[in-house]
Design goal:
There is one protein chain. This protein is α+β, with helices and mostly antiparallel strands and 230 residues long. Helix content is 30%, strand content 25%. It has helices at residues 2-8, 23-36, 63-78, 181-193, 203-222; strands spanning 39-48, 82-88, 97-103, 114-121, 142-147, 150-156, 159-164, 171-174, 226-227. Strands 8-7-6-5-1-4-3-2-9 form a nine-stranded mixed beta sheet.
Length: 230
């Protein structure tokens, strides 16, 4: 309804999927396109917020929205839409729980891509009285990506480690001179306002991410893999 209303009113909407636009993610996309080939395995280890915890990102300070951002990032990097999802509960707390995304093989018969989220709930003591504005930076998720011709590690928004098939060790690139995610989003929004055709995330991307969050809840309750029909 929001998307249709914006179209009717000729109003531009741009969603804040800021994970897509960090310097490390931008560089990862460049490497996938030029040096490493498609992502075949994606794993993200992250700390999921709880109601008493400080917000990790604007607009992502609850479990649903935080998961939506991570699941969107997995789709963005693989360039594919998931066809199934399995949420795996831990054997005992406080061990992490996991979400596994399954993707359909492409028309060439290439093996299906997989993506896995390893999630730990934040441990926040109400007695500490932690205020979101005074809290330290939220821990940045750890990303490990295996591509056709190499692998990548991302442990911060401004640094990427990668290796192609001819290297023995991971090389590190520091990206502190690159534009921040907020600067990139503002630039893209401005270009679209002026009539540019720069592709940006839209409300339908949000709906897809929230559908995956709903499938996660269903899988956690049933303990079974959930098929996803788009």
């Amino acid at each position: 309804a929001l998307h249709e209303s914006a179209v009717d009113c000729e109003t531009l909407l741009m969603t804040e999927f800021s994970r897509r636009y960090t310097p490390a993610t931008t560089r990862l996309r460049e490497l996938i396109a030029t040096r490493l080939g498609e992502a075949r395995q994606v794993q993200v280890e992250a700390v999921v917020p709880v109601p008493a915890s400080p917000g990790p990102l604007p607009g992502q300070d609850c479990e649903r929205d935080y998961l939506a951002g991570l699941l969107d990032w997995c789709q963005y990097i693989t360039g594919r839409v998931p066809t199934s999802l399995l949420a795996m509960e831990p054997a005992a707390n406080p061990q992490p729980w996991e979400i596994e995304l399954g993707f359909r093989p492409d028309s060439a018969g290439t093996p299906a891509t997989t993506a896995r989220l390893v999630l730990q709930k934040a441990q926040v003591s109400p007695e500490l009285g932690v205020d979101a504005h005074d809290a330290p930076d939220w821990p940045f998720p750890k990303h490990e990506i295996v591509c056709e011709r190499g692998r990548v590690h991302i442990h911060s928004a401004g640094e990427i480690c990668w290796q192609n098939g001819t290297q023995d060790t991971l090389g590190t690139e520091r990206l502190s001179a690159e534009r921040t995610d907020a600067e990139v989003m503002l630039d893209q929004f401005s270009r679209r306002v002026l009539g540019g055709l720069v592709p940006v995330a839209d409300v339908q991307d949000v709906c897809r991410a929230l559908a995956l969050v709903a499938a996660t809840l269903q899988s956690r309750q049933s303990g079974a893999r959930t098929g996803i029909v788009w």
